[in-house]
Amino acid sequence: MRRKLNILAGDKALxxxxxxxxxxxxxxxxxxxxxxxxxxxxxxxxxxxxxHLGFVVATCIAVVLLSHVNYRRFAPLSKWVLYLSVxxxxxxxxxxxxxxxxxxxxTRFQPSEIAKVALIVFMARAIAINKDPLDDSRTFVKLLFxxxxxxxxxxxxxxxxxxxILVASYIxxxxxxxxxxxxxxxxIIVLLVAVAAFLFLYFVGSHIDVGRIPTWSHRLQSWVHPNxxxxxxxxxxxxxxxxxxxxxxxxxxxxxxxxxxxxHNDFIFAIIxxxxxxxxxxxxxxxxxxxxxxxxxxxxxxKGQFGSLCVAGIGTLILLQAVINMSVAVGLLPVTxxxxxxxxxxxxxxxxxxxxxxxxxxVAFDNKKQARKARAEVLKAGDKESETVxxxxxxxxxxxxENKASNNIQS
Length: 411
Prior knowledge:
mainly alpha; single chain; 1% strand
């Protein structure tokens, strides 16, 4: 009976957060999917919503199933998943299909979404099994090498995802205990390169017609010098935020969401603000902060370094992606194309982040099993001690009775 009731294994708070975000997703996608379903997807809003519902249900099932798997089995599997995702990224790069790998007559998916979760698990495994001292520069470079490979393969088609992978993996190295002085020095170099790349894209990028460089340049220029008269996705998102105000205009009353092709995806947070207000938006941010707090608690409680780093790395990845999406929606960052985890319209991004959550719940479930096992051993040891205590007390009582009897006889 207990096994039947223990379907949602792992951390209960994470389940609550996941179901709340999924519920918000269903309402927000239903409210915003109209224009994109007709124009971009050549379908009906209800059909696309049902498709999203299918992804949400499939993700829930995947998280439940993974939460019951011993997380240690993910260590060797991560290597092969990462290799396959790298091959898929190379194919996408050669074929020039931007972010998508299309399987004819079946489906299409983004290999970068698989790679970013697989890389975190792979890095956690590499740090955990590494026999060399982590303060050595050669070890640092060796650990950073797969990150750079994935970053270089992802970036040409999706700069924001490449940067997200780089930042999340680099933070994971910090959690893993690498040489902090070397870590900070490398961070300074990366920041200097990032500033140089920003200046290059802003001033020169629009004149270089190579790959997506003109697109990145235009996004930077539009962010630094927005044209309020231009009807762009980012301008409509800002208008949606301004219209929402503190309390919003009511669910299903969006105006700008019906004019935007990415309202259900990249800019869904702006539409949520338009309909429910800034207070609801702060509540969503609080859910992600709570999510990360629970991840840190789980990582701290895990005795194995591999499990601890998996939870910390995947949690950091999800939090960073959420912060980037929300920042873009309110105009704090240029347009990136990052979805809002567990809220934006489902697909490979939704499903593979769900697999990452499944890994976290697997570690949390294992922590609970280990804690129950430790408590059982303590209780067992206590029972053995309690069994010996009555015997000793009985001997003491018998000795006392014998002493009294001898005294009476002597008297």
